[in-house]
Amino acid sequence: MGFTKESCETFVEKLSGKDPVPGGGGASALVGALGTALGNMVGSLTVGKKKYADVEEDILRLKQEADDLQKDLLELVDRDAEVFEPLSRAYGMPKDTEAQQAEKDRVMEDALKLACSVPLEIMKKSCRAIELEQEFAQKGSALALSDAGVGAIFCKAALQGASLNVFINTGLMKDKVYAEKINREADEMLEHYGKLADQVHQLVVSRIR
């Protein structure tokens, strides 16, 4: 769909419109990419500095992974919109007869699982990004430390935002065992990595104030 190829202004305008995509999932992925990029910038400002020569190898490794994460999260902006289409079509299926209702239920269940898969992936990518932010904050240039903190906040927002798109889909699933499994996975990420992002934020605050 190419949302990330458009200008920031156009994306925001589309986000504020009545079309269902892009929506909260895609916006969360974009915020995660921005947060990851902020940590990556800390790395860019650290590489080549004599003061940080002892961690340069680590920083280069972090930057490579951040590059990959940024790309993945940007791709998930469009992917989130793509997986919503089958769900949108399923909502419009007829249900006048028992057979039609059964078919709609079957298609809906598959579409809900597909629609749930992308925000869950956004959450996973955001979790890893938060781990990178922690290392950038610990090892990166002190002059750019605040950017690692902002990056951690953004990645936490991406994590939490994507979780809402997970939960709105699992809440409609008839397969409650599957839904509960996904909910537990999402809850564990929120619990652990939400706290980790807060720790990075506090680390940054303690060092710049």
Largest sheet: none
Overall outline: elongated
Task: Indicate the low-confidence ranges by residue numbers.
Answer: none
Name the helix and strand elements from N-terminus to C-terminus, one letter apiece.
HHHHHH
Question: What share of the residues lie within helices?
Answer: over 70%
Give the C-level CATH assignment: Mainly Alpha
The named CATH superfamily: Formiminotetrahydrofolate cyclodeaminase monomer, up-and-down helical bundle
Radius of gyration: 20 Å
Q: Under CATH, the topology is which?
A: Four Helix Bundle (Hemerythrin (Met), subunit A)
Distance between the termini: 43 Å
Mean of the pLDDT scores?
96
CATH architecture: Up-down Bundle
The total count of strands amounts to 0
Proportion of strand residues: under 5%
Structural class: mainly alpha
So how many helices? 6
Number of domains: 1
List keywords for this structure.
209 residues; single chain; Four Helix Bundle (Hemerythrin (Met), subunit A); mainly alpha; elongated; 6 helices
